Amino acid sequence: MSNTQQLNDFSTQVRRDILRMVHAVNSGHPGGSLGCTEFLVALYQEIMDRKVGFDMNGIGEDLFFLSNGHISPVFYSVLARSGYFPVSELATFRKLNSRLQGHPTTHEGLPGVRIASGSLGQGMSVAIGAAQAKKLNNCNHLIYSLHGDGELQEGQNWEAIMYASAKKVDNLIATIDLNGKQIDGSTDEVLPMGSIRAKFEAFDWDVLEIKEGNNIEAIIIGLNEAKSRTGKGKPVCILLHTEMGNGVDYMMYSHAWHGKAPNDAQLETALAQNLETLGDY
Questions:
Q1: Measured between alpha carbons, how far is 3 from 1 in angstroms, rounded to an integer?
Q2: For residue 238, what is the enclosing H or E element?
Q3: What is the pTM of this model?
Q4: DSSP SS3 for 24
Q5: Residue 2: which residues within 8 A CB-CB, separation 6 or more?
Q6: Torsion-angle region of 245 (φ positive above 0: left; ψ -120 to 50: alpha; else: beta)
Q7: Nearest-CA neighbor of 220 among 26, 23, 18, 4?
Q8: Cα separation of 269 and 139, whole Å?
Q9: What SS3 class is residue 60?
Q10: pLDDT in tens, 154-200
Q11: Helix orientation angle between 4-25 and 72-81, rounded to the nearest 10 degrees
Q12: Kind and range of the H or E element at 178?
């Protein structure tokens, strides 16, 4: 059980990791990674029931699936700093023969990664399958998944969303990163989706919102509320309102940093806004 300051310090260090990883190879996706930092820190440090060590079956523990795999920098940083693999390995991000591919993959055997998620729109289906496997195994642990709002423009999601409620997959908590931005602009400009809440509710999901999606305390309250709604016949959806590029002033309020690395001067500015807390790799 961590206190809020510890979790905020953890988040600040993760933001530093993200920025340094993407800068070092001049490629990657800092915007969404920074936006989801507090969520993944809260999930791994406070909410999920995790076992020590890693195995693919994940029996007797909660599982997480990252669907929007391009935000791998935040995923890798949180996994490493949660003990899945050495923090020093973050220095290999996106390099040849690295286990830390630009999008997470399983063939390199990186602890913490259970699916490849380079292609968008597939994580919901995998999460549902894992949730049903938990039920078949009479395991009461939960499945968590994270999806981009722009990612919901992919059709396979809606087949899965329909299936989850029809089959009463009520041990699943799917979180939508609602930042309103994707690589080519705002989601409303690229392909308006109307009310995502109304859509999930029409598909008979239980929906709740975390309005302050970059506030650790608000996220923990929201995730605990979501947990309390599981086991009641409906899958649970969290609409997480985040700011893309959160924590770096010149990256926020724009889609420009969805998939662009900072240069040397920009990195220096960003790191000055996120001072080292747990030690750089």
A1: 7
A2: strand 236-241
A3: 0.97
A4: helix
A5: 10, 45, 46
A6: left
A7: 4
A8: 47
A9: coil
A10: 989 999 999 999 999 999 999 999 999 988 889 989 999 999 999 99
A11: 130
A12: strand 172-178
